[in-house]
Each structure stands twice: as structure tokens, then as C-alpha cells.
Amino acid sequence: MLIRRFFENPAAYRNPFAELDRMRKEMDFLNSSLFNTDPRHAFSAGVFPAVNLTEDKDNFYIRAELPGVKADELDIQTTGKSITISGERKISDEDANARYHRREREAGRFSRILELPGDINTDKVEAGLADGILTITVAKAEVAKPRQITIK
Amino acid sequence: MADSKELKLKEKQEVSIPAEHTRPGPVFTPAVDIFETDKEITLLADMPGVAGKNLNIDLRDDTLTLTGDIEPFEGPDENDILVEYEVGKYFRQFTLSEVIDQEKIEADLKNGVLRLTLPKVEKAKPRKITVNAA
């Protein structure tokens, strides 16, 4: 059986290791996509929108790139330690006669919950949208702020 | 809209451009929509974080170049906790096959989306020539 298939497939006849080679390539591809070696994206949740979270002494800052999203299409809520960002990105309909050359921008709904690593003051949450970047400033709760301790 | 789809996360596309920049940093390709009507070509590009003054649109011969610079918006005392996307310049080039009326190009940047209208040159209109009889 093995021999017959060998001769029926001219490609395999020429190079019996071609199949093995193809499998090896596929395994390599799987490895590289599963275990993405780029450490910068190692902790990404894989949910739209991608966010960057930073902190200073008093606040947490959440930033997300949301080009083309208007402020009234966004919904931001806080509960406990988490912030929910949801909304919809709309792309306006163009002329019906327009012929598309490229269509890379996408529209759709999104929703993301982000838990902050410390207690927050839910009364002091501010959000701003400028040039397609959403910035949410979340004040830390008094207990979460670092306190200077003086040595007597 | 109840039937609209869920947005999936797309990683920003990093590009390497032939000429090296003096300032180091990643360069990304903005996502674009390009469509054409009889009168004009319209280009929409997502360039979040680019302010109007930092956007450069250049049309030379048939090559349209878009460059967007980002000003750092993080405060000096901020420490990263989670970094899911990187911030960098935007760069993209297109070759146009149509002749564009350079005088009438319009660019509009709103909410991080650039809308560039490139009107086509009007074809020479037929003109009737009357012969003055002496």
C-alpha cells in the first residue's frame, strides 16, 4: 500500500521527504504563533480595544486608541475596582457608486472590562477623547496611595 | 444597530521603511479605506494620536506619502503597568494612477481619522470653435 501511493504521487516520488518537510514547517508556524516570542505583547488580553495602563502617585491612566469613535458613542462605567469601556465604532456609508480599492478599517461593537491593580476612588474618574485616543484618569483611593514614612 | 459585528483586536502593523529615521522608534502602517467615484478618490486613514500639525501629506509625481508624528502624551512620573499597544509614527505610501488636481486636494483630520479627498483632473471639455466669416 505504501509503495503504491509512493508511485501514484509523482511529487512524493521525487522527494519522499517533502511531506515531512511540510509538516515541520507547519509545526514551526504553530510554535511561532502560539508562543509569541515578542515579550511586549505577552500580556495582551486580545480584546478590542488594546489599552495601555500606567500609574503615578495619585492616578491610574488608561489609554486606548479609538480612531473615529465619538464621545457619545462610548460608554464608560466603574464598578468596584474595574472599569468597563464599551461602545461602537461606526464607519459612515459613502456614495453608493464608489468603487472600493481598499477596505482595511473596521466597524463594530466592543466591550472591555479592565480590573485595576489597586483600590480606586470611583467618584474621581475622568475621561477625555482627543485625536482618537481615549484617556481615562482614575484617582487612586487614599489607602492605595503610597505614603512617605519619615524616620524619627 | 443590533446586527453589527464585534470588533476584533488587530495588532498594529509595524513597517520598516527604507530610509532610517534620525529619531528611533517604531513606525506603523495606518489602516486605510480608499474608494473612487467619477469625480474623486477618497482616502480614509486611522491615525490615532496624530494632531493636525504633525500630519504631513505629500503628493509628488504619482506618489502620495502620509506621515504622522506622535507627541508623547504620558506624564513624566507615569510608570507602565500594562502595555498592549505601542505608540509610534505612521507612514504609508501609495502610487496613484489617476491624474490629481493638486489645487483642490482637501484634507480633514477628525478624531484621529484622516479624510483626504483627491479630485481628478477634469477632462478637457469639448469646445466649439466658431469661424468668423470675413
Cα Rg of chain B: 21 Å
Task: Give average pLDDT of chain A, whole number.
Answer: 81
Encode the helix/strand succession of chain A as letters.
Answer: HHHEEEEEEEE
**Strand portion of chain B:** 35-45%
CATH architecture of the largest domain in chain A: Sandwich
* Number of distinct helices of chain A: 3
What value does the Rg of chain A take, in angstroms? 26 Å
Lateral strand order in the biggest sheet of chain A: 1-2-8-7
| Tally of strands of chain A | 8
Put simply, the count of helices of chain B is 0
Indicate the low-confidence ranges of chain A by residue numbers: none
Distance between the termini of chain A: 88 Å
Beta content of chain A comes to: 35-45%
From the spread of the alpha carbons, the general shape of chain A counts as: flat
Element-level helix/strand string of chain B: EEEEEEEEEE
CATH class of the domain at 25-72 and 83-119 in chain B: Mainly Beta
- Separation, N- and C-terminal Cα atoms of chain B: 72 Å
Instruction: Identify the CATH class of the largest domain in chain A.
Output: Mainly Beta
Largest interface: A-B, 51 and 43 residues
Largest sheet of chain B: 5 strands, mixed
